[in-house]
Design a protein that fits this description.
Elements: E1 7-10, H1 15-26, E2 32-33, H2 45-55, E3 59-62, H3 70-75, H4 77-98, E4 102-106, H5 135-155, E5 159-164, E6 166-168, H6 181-195, E7 199-203, E8 209-210, E9 212-214, H7 215-228, E10 235-237, E11 243-244, H8 245-256, E12 261-265, E13 274-275, H9 280-284, H10 293-309
Parallel strand pairs: 1-2, 1-3, 3-4, 4-5, 5-10, 6-9, 7-12, 8-13
Antiparallel strand pairs: 8-11
Helix pairs in contact: 1-7, 2-4, 4-5, 6-8, 6-10, 8-10
The chain binds guanosine-5'-diphosphate.
């Protein structure tokens, strides 16, 4: 990848896209295409085709997606399957037509079966039923993987697929109801601290286990794979360690400095019992994460206080 290469980061205002832009800029890539949603609606086929025809990017990071936590995935399942299918189909097809040098598609660890054996190897894909709370999103992402792989076979399309574990970091969506667990709890603890509430409720039993990766680590891995990986097989991206939701909640309580109690609301869904990725394929390429969970949560909390709280920035779901 030449430093002058024209790079399109789709979804550059989201958690992953903004981390990719920081990472690319830090490495000296300055020819970045970053249209806003108003300038380019990725669900509109003609608009996306026109954009690719006009701009002819060399590299595409497909980080645009409709994403959310366990509740948003259930409540807005229709939006999630429609928007994600449209966005990825439009971008992948337009990239093929424009003859890009490489496209990197981002999936998710929720593509794997609910009861996949742990840690989850890439070969677990489509070996069992999905977790119902996010099956609409997962099916869209699985379709994206199939599309990239089918395009590789039929058209020699230079696409690769990464499956990140649960991500967090600056630029996240901090919506109390619709965000993922880490930002939602960060905000809930923060607000409880300010209002001196005696307790904070954590959804579910606290027993599910999740693996958390900082978005800057994901961006680092994505840039490496964009440059060094060109195979049809999907690649898991994680840190190789997981924690229970109860442990995560305790850590976030500490980071926020909330002195009150923690209670669990068992009427809320737990989702998949465990989602730890097998990262041996990625680690064999020589990559390792750099940001420890506690440090990353502290940094994300600082970003939340400085941006969402102080400046009223609402990190959008993009
Ligand atoms: P998932 O990995 O797809 O299940 O996504 P989430 O990040 O939304 O949820 C992870 C786990 O955290 C689930 O077991 C949730 O029930 C639990 N959880 C606990 N409190 C919260 C919360 O406030 N918001 C969310 N989204 N999840 C929570």
């Amino acid at each position: 990848m030449k430093q002058t290469a024209k790079i399109y980061v789709a979804g550059h205002r989201g958690l992953v896209g903004s981390a990719l832009v920081r990472r690319l800029q830090a490495s000296g890539f300055s020819n970045l295409l970053l249209p806003t949603r108003r300038e380019l609606d990725l669900t509109r086929q003609q608009a996306v085709e026109d954009f690719f025809e006009r701009e002819r990017p060399d590299y595409v990071f497909l980080a645009a997606a409709k994403v959310g936590g366990i509740r948003a995935n259930s409540v807005f399942a229709g939006d999630f399957i429609r928007d994600n299918l449209l966005i990825q189909t439009n971008v992948i097809e337009s990239a093929r037509r424009a003859g890009v040098s490489k496209l990197l598609f981002l999936g998710s660890s929720c593509i794997y079966p609910k009861f996949a054996s742990q840690p989850i190897r890439e070969s677990e894909l489509m070996t069992g039923p999905l977790e119902p709370t996010n099956s609409a999103y997962a099916v869209a992402k699985i379709a994206g993987i199939e599309m990239v792989q089918a395009y590789r076979r039929q058209f020699d399309f230079p696409g690769i697929c990464l499956m990140p574990t649960n991500l967090y970091g600056p630029g996240d969506n901090f919506d109390l109801e619709n965000a993922h667990v880490a930002p939602a709890l960060m905000r809930r603890f923060h607000e409880a601290k300010l209002s001196e509430a005696p307790e904070v409720t954590v959804w579910g039993s606290g027993r599910p286990r999740r693996e958390f990766l900082h978005c800057d680590d994901l961006a680092d891995a994505a840039l490496l794979l964009m440059q060094e990986y060109d195979e049809a097989e999907i690649v898991n991206v994680g840190c190789g360690e997981d924690v229970s939701i109860a442990e995560l909640a305790e850590t976030i309580r500490d980071v926020v400095g909330y002195p009150g109690r923690l209670t669990f609301d068992a009427s809320k869904p737990d989702g998949t019992p465990r989602k730890l990725l097998d990262v041996s394929r990625l680690f064999a390429i020589g990559w390792r994460p750099k940001i420890a969970l506690r440090d990353g949560l502290e940094q994300a909390y600082q970003w939340y206080v400085e941006n969402v709280e102080t400046k009223g920035v609402r990190a959008t779901v993009s």
